[in-house]
Structures are given as structure tokens and as C-alpha cells.
Amino acid sequence: MNPFRIGFGYDVHQLKTGEEFWLGGIKLEHEKGAVGHSDADVLIHVICDAILGAANMRDIGYHFSDKDPKFKGIDSKILLKEVMELIRAEGYEIGNLDTTICLQVPKVNPHIPGMKKCLAGVMNLAEHDISIKATTTEWLGFVGREEGISAYCVALIYKV
Ligand SMILES: Nc1ccn([C@@H]2O[C@H](COP(=O)(O)O)[C@@H](O)[C@H]2O)c(=O)n1
Ligand SMILES: C[C@@]1(CO)OP(=O)(O)OP(=O)(O)OC[C@H]1O
């Protein structure tokens, strides 16, 4: 059996004035922040979904329901740590991750080293294996109107 498996994650959160803005495990200073049942860290959510998808282990909402008060306001880094435990218990390890954040403002490039350091710590991975990129949508659509943020992730995993 091929030891390599790929997975894909996509997620969207609304942006609202006065909300905290958690992204890639760190808090950004911005007039708007992301809304969700958890801390609404869209980058962590797509990483969880890509990893779970690669292992064919359902998705983030299956393991951590957005109807469960236990997860209200939860730090998504805790969910990511649990996802890593779930896939490592099945004998999988991460090869690499590649992500894209779709956000009109603010620019996230200055924060990417901090996000990579944080996520590498949470996932016990090398920073080199976590790629984070960003794009605006050129003022088009819900991202362009600053109504929301979306993200994508592809993950390569393999059986140890
Ligand atoms: N929120 C964002 C969006 C983009 N970037 C960086 O700017 C580059 C140009 O963005 P375009 O949407 O015009 O292609 C992009 O390649 C990123 O490097 C960013 O830092 N934060
Ligand atoms: C993370 C969870 C659980 O708190 O809630 P949200 O922050 O709403 O995130 P979403 O990506 O919409 O769904 C996954 C949920 O399970």
C-alpha cells in the first residue's frame, strides 16, 4: 500500500468589528476579528481538516462539534494538538503542509514567521514543513468586502 496520503481543507469565518482575531495560533491586532464557536482560527481549522482528510478520519466538526458548549471559545491550538494525537495514534506522521489565507486586510506576511513558529511547536514539526501564504481577493467577494476570511490547506501524511 502506498504510504503517502494527501488531504485538503477549506474553511470560512465571518469578520466582525470588536472580535478577537486569532490566526495561525497568534492574536493579530485589527479592528475586526473572526467569529465562530471556537476562537475561529481559520488557518488552524483548515490544517486540522487537511490532516484528518488525509487520514480519512472525518473533519474538525465531527470530532469537536460546534453545538458542544465544551468547545465554546476554545483555543484552536488545543484542537490541533488533539488532531495530531488522533492521527499519530493511527501511525501517521506529517510530511508537509501548504496553506493559503484569503484576507483583504491586514497584510499577514509580517506575522507568518510567528505563526510558523507557534504551529511547529503545537504540532511538534519542523517550521520548514509548514508553509503559510496569503492573498487578497483584489477587493472581490466576501473576502474583498472584508466580511470574511477563508483559508485552504493541503497536507501530505505518511505511515511511519
Ligand atoms: N492579507 C494578505 C494578503 C496578501 N499578502 C501578501 O501580499 C501579496 C500580494 O497580494 P495579492 O492579493 O495582491 O496577490 C501576496 O502574495 C502576499 O505575499 C499578505 O501579506 N496579507
Ligand atoms: C471549531 C468548531 C468547534 O468549536 O467551531 P467553529 O469555531 O465554529 O469552527 P468551524 O470551522 O465553523 O467548525 C468546526 C467546529 O467544530
Structural write-up:
- With 160 residues, the protein is an alpha+beta fold.
- It has a single domain (4-159), classed as 2-Layer Sandwich (60s Ribosomal Protein L30, Chain: A).
- The protein is built from five helices and seven strands, in the order ββββαααβαβαβ.
- The mean pLDDT is 98.
- The chain binds ligand L45E5XJ5 and 2C-methyl-D-erythritol 2,4-cyclodiphosphate.
- The site of 2C-methyl-D-erythritol 2,4-cyclodiphosphate has 13 residues, from helix 2.
- Pathway: Isoprenoid biosynthesis; isopentenyl diphosphate biosynthesis via DXP pathway; isopentenyl diphosphate from 1-deoxy-D-xylulose 5-phosphate: step 4/6.
- Homotrimer.
- Its EC number is 4.6.1.12.
- Keywords: Isoprene biosynthesis, Lyase, Metal-binding.
Shape: globular
**Would you count the extended β strands for me?**
7
- Percentage of residues in DSSP E strands: 25-35%
Output the structural class: alpha+beta
CATH topology: 60s Ribosomal Protein L30, Chain: A
Task: List unreliable stretches of 5+ residues.
Answer: none
Task: Please give a handful of descriptors for the protein shown.
60s Ribosomal Protein L30, Chain: A; binds 2C-methyl-D-erythritol 2,4-cyclodiphosphate; alpha+beta; two-stranded antiparallel sheet; binds ligand L45E5XJ5; isoprene biosynthesis; single chain; lyase; 7 strands; metal ion binding; five-stranded mixed sheet; 160 residues
